[in-house]
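Design request, tokens follow.
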């Protein structure tokens, strides 16, 4: 592990000194600025710039937290102001960008954000916030100008299995820090065949979304989706950034909804710990590099508004997140949502979106009636005390280990009441406009307990809702729904993972 540390305590005061003049005149031109045109920053150029910036200002630490599939370093920058609030009182904010290689504006903005903080141009948030920043998660995909990493994996669909080195690095950082607030930075495509056939391209502006999975605290979902986004939208109006809540659709004649409730992406996978998590979706170009300077500017302004808001509300947000996490840890009984979908809301029957004419370039708007803005749970289950997993299900156990879930192998039988499932049917369906496995089971209870040799995981701590979401056979975001775990759902068989309902304290 490579860690760039400060050589003495004095440089830690540099951000405050820069505000008073100090080294504010020192020029650190980002690679994008240096290019003077719409060209992308390579990973090599990014690393050289960040190393120069860190060495010259001493305003942050830089730590290598992982490597891409092709061996490129993934780095974590840490910005803090020791003259501000004590570390224990600060709000921890974690931002990571460019999980998708063909969405580069978040990386470009993150490089500029690091420069602006290090040179004192943007430090007002530091007394209340400790910022942890990964500027680029997918360097290989970026170099190849493709969405996936070099192995063809979509990193933002790997937050359940954690099979890629890149996502494993992000999640290791998250698990170590357990930040109060997280932000995942992306871009959305502005066109597709369904749009061009209607003569339009998307013109949805800069977009952002908050938590959407019902297994996360309702207070955090409402606060993020309503209070935070509304405040940021107002803040960004003066910065020529038109911020909206993120909308997903396959075309202008298809249904519109907010962002997925899935647990395999960077937002909800961190939100399952009752983290106040968000994602940004900036407006992409017709090519990867088209208009990259303006795209990066809007991403940068959105990140700065994000940090400014949370600095101004640091105590409130920190207290809210910690209370909701305590509730998650202490709640002995709870329902865990397994199947959910977006539905209509009578209070919000339509949504208006911006479009641009393909032929004319004229801006217009569409009023969409097929608007489904509210998540509804259609199947839930009582959270058990824990689960008993056969030791030969090594692939399942490895996933749990990658999530940092404690595993205990039974050396003697465990007395108590357990529940097993018989898999009756597995039908193909659609939820959230995606393929979905509709699993029907019959439950059977037994007082025979769990035999020795099984591996037990307890639904405790901040992972109390994550564990059932991963292990229940009917969970639409669970391991059983992932193709490589399809053998768990053999029709007519008994699901091999047992639910522990009663056990000795």
């Amino acid at each position: 592990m490579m860690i760039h540390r400060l050589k003495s305590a004095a440089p830690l005061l540099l951000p405050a000194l820069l505000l008073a003049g100090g080294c504010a005149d020192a020029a650190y031109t980002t690679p994008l600025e240096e290019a003077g045109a719409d060209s992308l920053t390579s990973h090599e150029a990014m690393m050289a710039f960040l190393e120069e910036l860190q060495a010259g200002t001493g305003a942050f630490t830089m730590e290598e937290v992982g490597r891409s599939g092709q061996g490129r370093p993934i780095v974590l920058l840490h910005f803090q102001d020791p003259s501000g609030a004590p570390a224990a009182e600060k709000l921890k904010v974690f931002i990571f960008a460019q999980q998708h290689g063909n969405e580069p504006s978040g990386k470009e903005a993150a490089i500029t954000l690091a420069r602006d903080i290090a040179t004192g141009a943007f430090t007002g948030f530091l007394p209340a916030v400790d910022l942890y920043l990964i500027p680029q998660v997918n360097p290989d995909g970026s170099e190849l100008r493709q969405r996936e990493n070099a192995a063809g994996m979509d990193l933002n669909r790997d937050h359940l299995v954690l099979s890629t080195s890149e996502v494993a690095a992000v999640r290791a950082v998250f698990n170590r820090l357990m930040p109060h607030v997280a932000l995942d930075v992306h871009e959305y495509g502005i066109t597709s065949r369904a749009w061009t056939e209607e003569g339009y391209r998307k013109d949805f502006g800069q977009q952002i979304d908050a938590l959407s999975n019902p297994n996360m605290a309702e207070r955090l979902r409402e606060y993020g989706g309503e209070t935070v986004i509304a405040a940021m939208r107002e803040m960004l109006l003066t910065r020529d950034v038109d911020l909206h809540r993120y909308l997903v659709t396959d075309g202008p004649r298809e249904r519109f909804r907010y962002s997925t409730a899935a647990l395999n992406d960077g937002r909800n996978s961190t939100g399952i710990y009752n983290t106040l998590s968000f994602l940004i979706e900036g407006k992409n170009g017709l090519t990867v590099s088209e208009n990259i300077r303006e795209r990066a500017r809007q991403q940068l302004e959105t990140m700065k508004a994000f940090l400014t808001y949370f600095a101004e509300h640091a105590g409130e947000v920190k207290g809210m997140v910690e209370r909701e996490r305590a509730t998650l840890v202490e709640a002995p009984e709870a329902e865990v949502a397994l199947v959910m979908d977006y539905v209509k809301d009578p209070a919000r029957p339509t949504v208006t979106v911006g479009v641009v004419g393909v032929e004319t370039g004229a801006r217009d708007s569409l009023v969409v009636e097929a608007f489904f803005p509210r998540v509804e749970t259609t199947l839930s289950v009582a959270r058990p005390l824990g689960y008993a997993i056969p030791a030969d299900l090594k692939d399942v156990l490895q996933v749990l280990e990658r999530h940092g879930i404690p595993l205990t192998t039974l050396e003697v039988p465990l007395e108590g009441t357990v529940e097993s499932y018989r898999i009756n049917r597995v039908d193909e369906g659609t939820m959230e406009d995606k393929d979905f496995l509709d699993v029907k089971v019959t439950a059977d209870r037994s007082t025979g307990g769990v035999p020795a040799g099984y591996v037990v995981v307890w639904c405790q701590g901040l992972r109390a809702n994550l564990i059932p979401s991963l292990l229940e056979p009917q969970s639409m975001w669970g391991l059983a729904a992932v193709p490589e775990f399809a053998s768990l759902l053999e029709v007519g068989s008994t699901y091999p993972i047992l639910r522990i309902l009663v056990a000795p304290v």
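Comment from the thread starter after seeing the answer: thanks! Residues 1-25 have pLDDT under 50 and may be disordered.
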